[in-house]
Write a structure and sequence with these properties.
The structure is a homodimer. The first copy, chain A, is an all-alpha fold. Chain A contains 20 helices and 3 strands. In chain A, helix 1 runs antiparallel to helix 2, helix 11 packs across helix 16 and helix 12 crosses helix 13.
């Protein structure tokens, strides 16, 4: 009875956060331009009210009763897990003064305008003051949240709980050691031809084919839809309504196709969460104040990268599905065989822009950002020295010279909106995807499915081991249960080495 | 300072109610079917929180400070009007116990499912028990709200403040007296041919033409958009984002065209509200808990009916715009001249279904509903006797026999969702539209504009006299300022008599 009233209260927090997500989806897909200013106010109000509803006296009273009522249940059962998570989230938010949250949101809102202009003008100097303020505010935030070793750990906690500057060091070292020689070897080989991918592929057919593939992977359109947007994303409003978006470039076909498979991976995580967790904290990120079923940003990214790269960019996938693609685009793909197509969509080419990077170079973009963010936060790097530090790392990791700040340090939106601490998720997602795919394909049903264009067994394996658990277990608990190990880059490195040796004949 | 903090608090209430409206728009235009259950919960939470935020101690504290601070300002100025409206709304909501609000929402939610099935089966008996409960709950609500003469007055207050059973009697009598003879005379004449309107008009072109006309009337698509839905509506999320919807029937072209002009009239009311009122109580219905700038449902309907009927169904409009319509649909409109088209879209035909009724018979559908609702609420009519009473009134007002309850007493959704007291708005809107259009066309600029397909002067007249004021003045204050009189059916009856005598040669 008390526990149920507590759950209903948490359902209201989930409702508020889902409402906020719906407003964000609408703003990025449907909203007419005039709506931007008042929409920003509506979003700000929902965030504040969700936070206030969570930390309110009434919630704490209900939590205490629920804790008392469930005290004799197993500590790792659903009820006590939920109570513990809510208590932790309340304490987390109460450590951060409302004025700091407000100030950070304000600077983030102003920052985005300043950044957009600075990026267009490639003028780091005009963005530097607001970035300085953002870094200061994030340092204050880190002090409020608390940490053991490094202030950056406190900032990563919201996105990737448990990950620290120290824990990332051996992971990044292993990736550098495994990937730099591979990248060097590839650079000496003839790249596969990709010119045919720049032919004009009609937009409507691209969307139709991409959605067909998404459905094939398990995306349920009775509980979702695909729309166009500028910066693609996936968003859920409970598992019953999980939407994906894409961006279509009629001169670079892989963008919408693999982008859709990527968002599909995210969507499957949400659509196949245990229905019993709907509207509960096990489907609500109460730290980040975001209605989501995935347990960490990295875990979420593991699903998008798995379906995009391990499935969607595999030779096997195209051996089975290329006929359909060529049937859809007979003129554009005339004379292009499966092997040529598969090699083309896996071409490696170190570039300056993170969001355009390929499977193999992506992690270097991540590493340089994490290292730079940590240094900005601990003060070992100052904002005025940032462009130089950025350019040096791009040279070191990617062998490229950065011609201007627009293509360098000004390229990402994150800092302009006040966000620091989220980049490591992308690499953790990659590593987890490798580890999970290796484990899943030890299962005969999964392997046979993949060999016959039947993706249900793979989706079911992921649902059984990942999706259904929502936020009940930590990322490393999930990994241990699913693969017998915590985060480990071995499978991922093996996958990349095998695949790219094959493509490039190394 | 205190007043500003109070306004910001009211801005949050407006944000919450706008968020609710966005969720409703999405549910009716974009949401995949699976999302319905959790969306209903999200909407319920937002309603409760908006109400709680309004009546909270903190709001009352801020209101008291704002009242003290503005006590020396003019009583009819913006500041004190806002304070008075908020105080009234808080008192209104505090009179209604939360348990009653909750119970009514619950019965409304169950009621809609039961009604949908009952209507499909034309089985009034299965809907009767939940209707009985709805009537009882609305009676309780009326007792809580309070009234002077008739409990139904308390229920109408939310939609049409100031209107009462007694005030409607002379209005309805005048309409009956003016319209029944006209209707009888029309029944003796040859109806204009309408068969060509049933030809297939391509959906995309219908939408494009309708939106073009909406823009011509002043609808700003930088602050709005047109989408498809099942039951068309207009909804605003502040004046900066005002959306309209339509339903396209490819076998009855007038539906989407005049439906769009109708929603355009609603949209203009919201889009041209004074920008200074954005997020304030002057753009928020704090009694009905709905983010809307219009001062009453009837006043809102006056704008939709004015642009749909007085502009869109006028001979002058089609003399100027029919060429463009025929250019869009040359095959479908082959051999049809302006006069034939204009007469066809104004054909009078008494029918059983309110939402399909023409300009002349609509008010009879309204009157019978208002009379029946009032009788149900005061107990002079019992639910078991309802179908018989309904059928007798349809016979009396429209001269039609009701073959079954599906086409009779079960046709409207309102009661199933718990709503009683909203029907009079439609007729008040018609009457007001007549009165406002007559006043506006005394202005040379407006008349010259209409004669030259320039609808800006008319829109500006309405903005000057109606739109911009938001909820600052009562409906009758607005009418007096704009036309020199409170609600008066003379102009409306004159309009109908003149127009239909012309069309039918009476």
């Amino acid at each position: 009875m008390g526990y149920n009233a507590f759950l209903e209260r948490m359902g209201e927090v989930n409702d508020l956060l889902n409402a906020e997500s719906i407003l964000k989806w609408d703003a990025r897909t449907m909203m007419p331009p005039g709506g931007a200013d008042t929409r920003a106010k509506q979003l700000a109000t929902l965030t504040v009210l969700a936070r206030d509803h969570l930390v309110a006296d009434e919630t704490r009273r209900l939590l205490e009763r629920a804790e008392a009522e469930t005290a004799s249940l197993p500590a790792d059962g659903v009820e006590r897990t939920i109570c513990a998570q809510v208590r932790e989230a309340i304490e987390y938010h109460l450590r951060i003064p409302a004025a700091l949250v407000h100030k950070r949101a304000e600077v983030g809102s102003i920052g985005q305008h300043i950044w957009a202009k600075a990026r267009a003008d490639s003028d780091f100097g005009s963005f530097a003051p607001v970035l300085e303020e953002t870094i200061t505010l994030n340092r204050e935030m880190a002090e409020c949240i608390g940490y053991e070793e490094h202030p950056y750990d406190a900032l990563m906690y919201r996105f990737e709980p448990g990950e620290t500057v120290r824990s990332l060091q051996p992971l990044f070292a292993a990736l550098r050691e495994g990937l730099l020689p591979l990248l060097k070897a590839i650079g000496e080989k003839e790249p596969p031809p990709v010119g045919f991918l720049e032919r004009p592929f009609p937009v409507a057919s691209q969307l139709e084919f991409a959605l067909k593939m998404a459905r094939k992977l398990g995306y349920d359109t009775d509980r979702g839809r695909l729309d166009l947007t500028v910066h693609p994303f996936e968003v859920s409003f409970t598992r019953n309504d999980v939407r994906i978006t894409t961006r279509v470039n009629d001169e670079w076909m892989p963008k919408s196709l693999f982008g859709t498979l990527h968002e599909t991976g995210h969507a499957l995580y949400e659509q196949y969460c245990d229905p019993a967790y709907t509207r509960t904290p096990l489907a609500t990120d109460l730290i980040g104040l975001y209605a989501v079923g995935g347990v960490s940003f990295g875990a979420h990214e593991s699903q998008s990268r798995l379906f995009e790269n391990h499935v969607g960019r595999s030779r096997e996938f195209w051996e089975l599905n290329y006929g359909e693609l060529r049937g859809t685009f007979p003129e554009q793909l005339e004379g292009i065989d499966t092997e040529t197509f598969w090699r083309a969509v896996n071409r490696v080419q170190p570039g300056l822009i993170r969001v355009e990077s390929d499977e193999l170079t992506y992690d270097f973009h991540v590493m340089l950002r994490v290292e730079i963010e940590a240094a900005l936060i601990d003060g070992s790097l100052s904002v005025p020295d940032l462009p130089e530090a950025w350019n040096a790392k791009v040279e070191e990791y990617l062998g490229l010279e950065v011609p201007n700040d627009r293509l360098g340090v000004l390229q990402d939106v994150h800092w302009s909106s006040g966000q620091v601490g989220t980049f490591c998720n992308y690499t953790i997602g990659n590593v987890m995807a490798g580890q999970l795919f290796a484990a899943a394909t030890k299962d005969d049903r999964v392997r046979n499915g993949l060999a016959n264009a039947d993706y249900l067994p793979l989706r079911e394996w992921m649902t059984e081991h990942i999706h259904r658990h929502g936020r009940r277990y930590s990322r490393d608990q999930l990994l241990e249960m699913a693969t017998g190990r915590t985060l480990d880059p071995t499978d991922y490195l093996e996958h990349l080495t095998r695949k790219y040796s094959d493509i490039y004949g190394i």
